[in-house]
């Protein structure tokens, strides 16, 4: 049996269904992300697991124990909040020691544990500072240390990186993953940032309007999005009309207009070839440079198509250049219609 | 003169004209010689009023009474106001505004009117005594006792405690409380170790306002303390209007101001000193 299990977990706020019959099984030591647009019920799910929000229906099992209605204190989970929720009137050391003091751990042991965890998050030199004297990334690390020091069975992270600037966010992503691997702690992270979810999770749970719509490993999720919404939300996607050929394999319909199928084709799966060759002809509308890659928007008979080409040293294409587009037919993905509106 | 000074001129004129000037005149007056036949002698100077104030046990009694009543009122306002503000901050959307307005509306009614209201309630045949008699008890003397003054002062001062505490509660991150709970703290520990230390600046401002207003309050001790239970402000009033000894009244007023200032500044230093480092106030 999985370590953390949600069975048909639901939450209603008056007339609003915030979370609808969510099932999830997280294995011990696994890093799982809850990914979805804002307002889809991620925080509510996390707060039900942490015990801050009463459950309307369903069950939460931790290591076989039913904790659905247990008090937050008795669950003993480590929670990191979006706002960090540090205690502003306590030093870094006292913030981190708080959970241990509540557990009546002997003073000497508290000191050594706090020291160890502050070294783990690389904050040992700042132990005597107050939260307001720290940068955003450092506060984030204090919050992480405070949750980890009590050695919780599960670590819950609510949008831990959303208040950081882009560079720091990437650095902290690596940091969180490094710490999680070092400690081996079962982790559930909420995020609305698909890149974040893909890069550091073992598995990603996509939520939409209170429901789970796909659970898969990041690579599988990216390569095989189930629905139109997911293919668009997770990474960039070109949605093309298509149908099945005589052999039953999906193909792009060349005359424009809606085919019976919706196909997804990732921008980096398309090759730009000489005009006149390839499967489709087009003209470059505009181009964007991202350092490691170029992004082109290309006007074709099937509409606008986005192509990403890695910056391999070849000359960039100018606006208005005529190009051919080619791809491997096996990389086309058939999408299911969206069963829920996000 | 720079533009900034020019713009602050109206406020400056108001400040000087309505506060500094009368205060200065009061200070000058307190050194004027007073003669029961002639009245104030504006060009003769003396320390006599200060000497008589400091050598008269009657004034010590009045000042001491004013101090302990104000301190007790302040304490009661903390004990009642802080939990009240916390509960208020935890209320749902419609109720919170309704109760906040309920707490603030008494400020719109004149203190004199409220004091009369209390004297109707607490009088010899007031509502409270009627209830006591109805229940078979003997009537109790409530009016013109410290009890009446304290209960009415607490009633009047409570909003001045609730508002600053409420303001600092607004700045609290509710998830910090959740974090403490998830770390194993009980609800009372959260109150004591997380919430209270963070609202201390608000409590401090509240105590300063309440103590200052209570120590210089006039209408309530005047109407509910009566002839017997004098506080400093009512004694000043007597000196001015019954004795017509304006310089003596001014002397008491100046000393009250200085004592008040001294107490409030040392209290502020004491509390702020404890919380300055952690809260950065
Ligand atoms: N305390 C609450 N009262 C009423 N509705 C709420 C409350 N908290 C969340 N909701 C609603 O529940 C839905 C999910 O919210 P939330 O879990 O915070 O979303 P997310 O974290 O994915 O952005 C939203 O529609 C939100 O408006
Ligand atoms: Mg959220």
TrEMBL record, chain A:
Pfam families in the cross-refs: ABC_tran, TOBE_2
Entry keyword set: ATP-binding, Nucleotide-binding, Transport
Boundaries of every ABC transporter domain copy: 4-234
Lineage: Bacteria, Pseudomonadati, Pseudomonadota, Gammaproteobacteria, Pseudomonadales
Protein name in UniProt: ABC transporter ATP-binding protein
Leader sequence residues: none
Entries under SUPFAM superfamilies matching the protein: MOP-like (SSF50331), P-loop containing nucleoside triphosphate hydrolases (SSF52540)
Organism of provenance: Pseudomonas canadensis
GO MF term list: ATP binding
From TrEMBL, chain B:
GO CC term (a single one): plasma membrane
Membrane topology: Multi-pass membrane protein
InterPro entries, A to Z: MetI-like, MetI-like_sf
Subcellular location per the Swiss-Prot or TrEMBL entry: Cell membrane
Keywords in alphabetical order: Cell membrane, Membrane, Transmembrane, Transmembrane helix, Transport
PROSITE patterns (UniProt xref): ABC_TM1
Gene Ontology biological process: transmembrane transport
Domain ABC transmembrane type-1 per the UniProt entry, residue ranges: 63-267
Superkingdom of the source species: Bacteria
SUPFAM superfamilies: MetI-like
Major localization class: membrane
Transmembrane segments: 62-86, 98-122, 142-166, 202-224, 244-267
Annotated family: Belongs to the binding-protein-dependent transport system permease family. CysTW subfamily.
Name by which UniProt lists this protein: ABC transporter permease
Source species of the chain: Pseudomonas canadensis
